[in-house]
Amino acid sequence: MLVSPWVFILAVFWVYPFLYALVLAFAKFDIFSGQWRWVGAANFAAVLANSAFWEALAHTAIFTAGTVPATTVLAILLALALNRRLWGRALFRAGFFAPTLTATVVIALVFLHLYAQGGYLYRLAQFVGITVPERGFLLSEKTALASVMVMDIWVSVGYYALLFLAGLQTIPAELVEDAVMHGASGWQRFWAITWPYLRPTLLYAIVINLIKSFQIFTEIFVMTQGGPLGATTTAVYHVYSTGFERFDLGYAAAAAFVLFALIAAVAVLQFRFFAFGRGAEE
Amino acid sequence: MTADGRLVVHFWQFWTEPRVKAVITKAIEEWEANNPLYKVEVTDLTWSDGYQKIVAAFAGNRVPDLLELGSDWVAEFADRGALMDMSTECLRLHDTLAGWPPAIYNDNCWALPWYLSTRVFYFNKDIAKLTQGGDPRPPMLWEELLQQTRDATIEKPKLWGFGVNAAEPHVLYKKFLPFLWSAGGDVLTEDQTVCALETDAGRRALQFLVDLSKNQLVEKQAALDDAFINGKLLFHLSGDWLYEKLRRSGSSVEFSAFMMPFPAPNEGTRTSFAGGEYLAIPRRATQPVAAISLARHLLSEKNIFNLCIATGCATPVHIKVARNPYFAEDSVRSVFIRQMSQAKSSPAHPRWVEIEAALEWGVEQALYGKRTVDEALAATCEKINAILSKSEKR
Predict the structure, then answer these.
(1) By CB distance 3.0 to 4.6 Å, which of A112, B19, B51, B234 could disulfide with B152?
(2) pTM of the predicted model, to two decimals?
(3) Which domain holds residue A209?
(4) Phi-psi region of B99 (alpha: psi -120 to 50; beta: other; left: phi over 0)
């Protein structure tokens, strides 16, 4: 009885759409007439044979490979810094976490202006001597995706830093004191004490960040609409444009399930790599 | 039905700017006062996702009674059997309103023109004086346009001759089509079965746009408009909204407007792009009679005049309003009216939205130097012909 509202919400907003999409993935659906016909695996075959899908997947892979490691490393370094006794530590923590509380659309719109020709980031880059693309960062096919990645890292670092900070604060102080008394260097203390305590948090952070990166959409929709020249079309944007601009819902559903399978496979591999469950207990 | 027993007429429209919305609301209130059995419920749409919302409404059978559609969408919705045939109403209003071609599909009329727009060249006379001196004249020919653009592109202060649209869906094709049509080309053959871009006219138009765009300001439409307002651009192909922005911003730029130049002496035409917004009634509307009455009211001379004042439109859809001195005697609005008489709309094809995307892809390929003009046109035609071959006549 107590869990029934949650079950209801789960059923209506997750189970039903999931099953409906699964049916759509095996059908050809006319959105105007509401008529549909069974086409078997034809939509999946179309997805796998479509070079635009693989291109979108490649862009997603580049995005993920570029943002997840960078965000993780920067977040750990930031957490270590925030774990020290600093004046104004609470203020710094709030400041770094602030982007997480801001709507993605708002951040994307701000960066749209920062990156434009004549925008602050554009002019700052020119000032420090960085070669800037003539058209602005988001209108040049060579820099558009990287620009969105930089923004994503800036937005995410604070959130993951707080996660790692929470992990750092589970480390018993006596262990650290003991290690210091025995002459362990900073690196030795990090590797022998800090790292094992951070591993569960690291696994969580990487899995969550990876899933989020594979689903990158809002920033692309607001800032580049998949352009220029398709350089920022990611997998989810490809699903969106085929489903909601071309209304090929069967294809879009199939593409979404292919993406789902890929993300699930990567998540399983991650769990195996990090040997889930082994951490501080070792 | 409302609590007081009135029948609800659902109206979906795209005008959300407060100044314009107020005018439409007042017009609706007047109609309600004259039709006390009805209450109009207005749903606002945005151009970023309005198309998707409309299609979702049709899919979910939650259609409005009166619907504003973009000019490029009418054929698609008509082809799907989603709209009510309004041929009788169109005939009734034929001599009162302008801008009919996008409303006609398969020899029937499916919508009523409500708002029309075209594109003209804005000309920054301050920059032109730097390069031409004296009393600068706008170009009459493509070659003159190109030369003046190049002459005006200087580093200090940073000025550009021309503003190029890039990486912005549903905008770039409106900048290419005027050159294509002026050169005598078109996107599709007359029977709309094959791509017609790979012609001398197509090559000439795209090559000219590529040449015109070299080393020029590449930005999205809003940023290009701002650049012109701030006096950074010599030429900018834009719509009547820019004239309104220039007037309201208090910009100190001395400017004028001129029609599309001719491709060459005694050659081609001065054809620009014509677009607009149309009022349609879904076939499954529950209050079609009331919807027609509301549409007629919104299309009255008074309401079209008020709408144009509020929006800053320069090409009123009502023929009598277009003759009003406010439009006909203004130096910029009169250019728009003359240009509209030589403007053309996108082909009324049910898959135009996909064809437009393919066209923009091809133009972008050439503008970014990824493909030569011939390669870009060939690749674009391949995409367009693939779309056309999948089209089924209903």
Answers:
(1) B234
(2) 0.86
(3) 46-274
(4) left
